[in-house]
Request: fold
Amino acid sequence: MVRREKMEELRKLGIDPFGKRFDTTTNAQELHTKLDEEDKDVVNAHTVRVVVAGRMMSKRGKGKVGFADIQDRTGRIQIYVRKDVVGEDNYYIFKRSDLGDFLGITGTMMKTDAGELTIRAEHVTFLTKALRPLPDKYHGLTNVEQRYRQRYLDLITNRESYDRFIKRSRIISAVREFLDANGFIEVETPVLHTQAGGASARPFVTHHNALDIDLYLRIALELHLKRLIVGGMERVYEIGRVFRNEGIDTKHNPEFTELESYAAYFDFTDVMDETEGIFRYATNKVLGSGKVTYQGETVDLDQPFKRVHMVDAIKEKTGVDFWPEMSVADAQKLADEHGVKYEGYWKVGHIINAFFEQFVEETLKEPTFIYGHPIEISPLAKKNSDDPRFTDRFELYILGNEYGNAFTELNDPIDQRERFEAQAAERAAGNDEAQGIDEDFIAALEYGMPPTGGLGIGIDRLVMLLTDAPSIRDVLLFPTMRPDTTDDAEADAIADVHEDNQKK
Reply:
């Protein structure tokens, strides 16, 4: 209630507690960059007037002199306010300001005896009253759930988190720069689909009242982008949200950002080169080198990525050889012997993939393309011409995590229909993530799609890697959460406690 009383006090003084337009001439980072290394005498002789604005994060001093730290989007700068300089009325406004309030500062530069760069205030402009106190400065947001629910508080109090999201923007910009420079066109495709496809995942379902039809939030970008290849666009990409009605953990969120790109006349080996290029360019652009340290482990993305067939990787780790053709019963026997669980509808290819996931995936520390996925788990990828049990598909693994999925696209409409029918049979047998038959997409292929290489990269996982974030929630501004059950009365009580703590 104290803050509301101060708000009314400002109004009585003729000051709008929620401010108006305010012009600045610089920011905290520019001032630090320009003047941090200058001698004290040089800075103190600096007579150029500066104007900054930001949130007051700390305040100290008493009597006729006060110091405060102002935080803007670039960082913090200290301000020095003297009653005999700004005047009694203006100093009163500064003294009555609370942590969290927004102030505009006009003044000149100086350095304190301790050598800290400081703005010597000539005038303080009140810009916005914060009616709730910030979290305790010594403890911050200790509740991880609160950090995710109230991301705005996390951004205010946790500079590491703030910088991570700035870096996220730079990473996405770097990905765009690389693709644009290589002749790709950025496009936008529908989020609402009449049929879920392009990935094996459970979709979110909604209903369009005017058309009286069910629609699905997209689970992938793939099928519409390939329609554009049919239409002659040749090189396209999209960076957008996709939605999957599945579990939540440190690597998965129901909505996430995906990059998909498609290039006519590429095969999956060309896409490997493209993928290496994207990762290498983004890493060097944002981090300044190809070396990445993630959760204590370091890799060098400037080095060539390894390329290993899935069957060879399994054989190396387990001694099990899936190159000889075998029956489902033979594959099930191998699974039983090695403790690999399987479903009743699984074929040999499913079991091969299960071996890979159980024994190989987490061991792939150096950047590695695992290629040659079984046809049963790759309904949209082209068969390998030498061994039709496998496809010209790869996944990229770094430090045991998957970062990309790509293949030479299946452009034979007859084969595609057979794959869709096999997926439909799987769905009938109990696989609710299997795809259905997309007649419109098959029709598009029947008009002819050139040989094409396609790529999918989880942008959030790439950001996790380049910002050393342990959870996907740390790189999503607003991750999916259960509704907060804390009522307003409880929230007000918490705010009052924080207010009392800040006064002590």
